[in-house]
Amino acid sequence: MRIVDVLKTLGGEADLDAIVEAALKRGIPPPIATRQLMRLVEKGVVKVVCDISIRYRFA
Fold first, then answer.
1. Rg (CA), the chain
2. Within 13 Å and on the Cβ side, how many CA atoms surround 42?
3. Least buried of 28, 41, 42, 45, by fewest C-beta within 10 Å?
4. Distance CA 26, CA 58 (A)
5. CA distance 36 to 46
6. What CA–CA distance (Å, rounded) separates 29 from 20?
7. Model-level pTM?
8. Mean pLDDT for each 10-residue chunk of the chain (59 residues)?
9. What pLDDT is attached to residue 58?
10. What whole-number distance in Å separates Cα of residue 21 and Cα of residue 7?
11. What's the burial of 16, exposed, middle or buried (CB within 10 Å: 0-12/13-18/19+)?
């Protein structure tokens, strides 16, 4: 399962801890999950939302 699918299952927006935890449950190690997430941010597929906490959302 890709990190995009993990983010979709979390409702399209989540903080890093929730994304990593959900990815780990699906067999994706935390370093791989964060690397894939940062690549999606670089490509513009996911954007960083700075609020009370830093969250990631589909662009």
1. 10
2. 6
3. 42
4. 20
5. 11
6. 8
7. 0.84
8. 87 90 94 93 90 76
9. 75
10. 11
11. middle
3-class DSSP state for residue 33?
A: helix
Q: What is the token pair recorded at 32?
A: 């791989």
Place of tokens 């990593």: 20
| Rounded CA separation 32/36 (Å) | 6
CA distance 36 to 26: 14
For residues 58 and 12, the answer to whether their CB atoms sit within 8 Å is yes
DSSP letters of 36-57? HHHHHHHHTSEEEEESSSEEEE
Residue 59 is encoded by which pair of tokens?
């662009």
Cβ neighbourhood burial of 50 (10 Å; 0-12, 13-18, 19+):
exposed
Give pLDDT, residue 1.
Answer: 61
